[in-house]
Amino acid sequence: METMEKTYAGINVDLNEQGYLTNFSQWNKEVGLEIAKEEGITMTDSHWKVIAYLQDQFKNEKALSIRSVGKSGVVSIKEFYQLFPKGPLKISSRIAGIPKPVSCI
Amino acid sequence: MEETIVKPKVELEKADQKPIKKMMLILSKATIENVYACFILANGARMEGIESEIFFTFFGLEAIQKKKLEHLHVATVGNPAMHIPTMLGGLPGMEALATKMMKSEMEKLDIPPVSEFLEILAASGTKLWACKLAMEMFKLEKDNLIDDLDGVLTVGDFYSRAKGDGTHLMFI
Q1: Which of B120, B121, B126 is most worth mutating to test chain A (most A CB atoms within 10 A of its CB)?
Q2: What are the tens digits of pLDDT across the range B137-159?
Q3: Global pTM?
Q4: Hey, is the C-beta of B162 within 8 angstroms of any chain A C-beta?
Q5: Which of A15, A54, B70, B89 is deepest in the core (most CB within 10 A)?
């Protein structure tokens, strides 16, 4: 897999070819904020709640899907799409600094 | 002379790389494998930020009928991928058994049941349309169909919604 380096908020991070962080330890909130800007997302508290949930699931090695996020109690599926209209799971995962989920649901 | 040959080729390459903007799916069957294929394609489009719409026609209407949508079956007859003799596939209870097995496998993969899947699709912004002619044919009223339905359309209405660059139509 091809990787590249990029600087977000003064921090050098490793990205895969799709722009996802390959090393979660390089993530902080400022990095997330800059990635969100690239994706055209203005982060609010609701956005950060989703990000925190995704990171939590990632740390616990739980697979992510739209369905599981919808059942989390953090956001409904409808709200999830409103927060990240251009692809909720893939964009929020990128901002969260975790790998792109492989789920089809 | 060379110009005229080269130019269209370049344009063709650009056209090839245009992203899909909208998926218009037509579901005409009610066997569970077809219904799920359609739902997963529609939902997968939304997950990628692609618009999607489903037109339920003919037997596809069963997937949005309140009373029938949880009782869809996998086809055991005339389905070579089942790897059971057609004669056996026709025995009573065979479809129910195969369906039960398939549903339990799907639940393991976090694939929701039909009713929940329809809710997910509606929440994702997938438009759900019923075919007017097929509804008349099966003597169905709007009350028989799910509440999340966006409306009843003619095929002409459906085509007019497919306007624009990057729209793809798919018949299932």
Answers
A1: B120
A2: 999 999 999 999 999 999 999 99
A3: 0.86
A4: no
A5: A54
Write out pLDDT tens, residues B57-91. Answer: 999 999 999 999 888 888 888 778 878 787 787 88
pLDDT at B97 over 90: no
Q: B111-139 burial string, b = 16+ CB within 10 Å, else e? A: bbebeebbbbbbbbebbbbbbbebbeeee
Flag whether residue A101 sits within 8 Å of chain B, measured between CB atoms.
no
The answer to whether A104 is a known catalytic residue is yes
CB contact under 8 A, B49 and A86: yes
Q: Quote the strand ranges of chain B, DSSP E.
A: 22-27, 51-56, 127-131, 151-153, 167-171
Q: How far is the C-alpha of A83 from the C-alpha of A81, rounded, in Å?
A: 5
Rounded-to-integer distance, Cα B25 and Cα B38, Å = 7
Q: What is the largest CA-CA distance in chain B?
A: 70
**What is d(CA A28, CA B166) in angstroms, rounded to the nearest whole number?**
37
Q: At A100, list the tokens.
A: 């792109």
Contact A103 B125 (CB under 8 A): no
User: What's the ipTM?
Assistant: 0.88
